[in-house]
Amino acid sequence: MAVPGPGSSEQDIRDWLIGRLSVHVSRPVQELDATVPFTEYGLDSVAALHLYGDIEDAFGFSLDPTLAWEYPTVAELAGFLATESAGSLTH
């Protein structure tokens, strides 16, 4: 899966996030559901920081760690990232 970046579709971002989550919680992608909260997969604070580091590297902008509570699922976080990355194209 290609690393998404500015202008990527929400679905591309969602697929990429599922792949990254799979790595950080050591579970197969097929077992992960984009609508299940990160905490239900056992994503602890250390793994969350690594995941957010992956996102920051891919998108080139810093994220507030509290976003994990504001967007607690892959689907919600992908929607946020798609909006933010589209906005970065206009700045």
Automatic annotation (TrEMBL):
Origin superkingdom: Bacteria
SMART domains documented for this protein: PKS_PP (SM00823), PKS_PP_betabranch (SM01294)
Residue ranges constituting the Carrier domain according to the UniProt record: 7-85
Alphabetical keyword list: Phosphopantetheine, Phosphoprotein
InterPro entries in the cross-refs: ACP-like_sf, PKS_PP-bd, PP-bd_ACP
Pfam families noted in UniProt: PP-binding
Gene Ontology terms for molecular function: phosphopantetheine binding
UniProt signal peptide: none
GO BP, one annotated term: antibiotic biosynthetic process
Protein name, per record: Acyl carrier protein
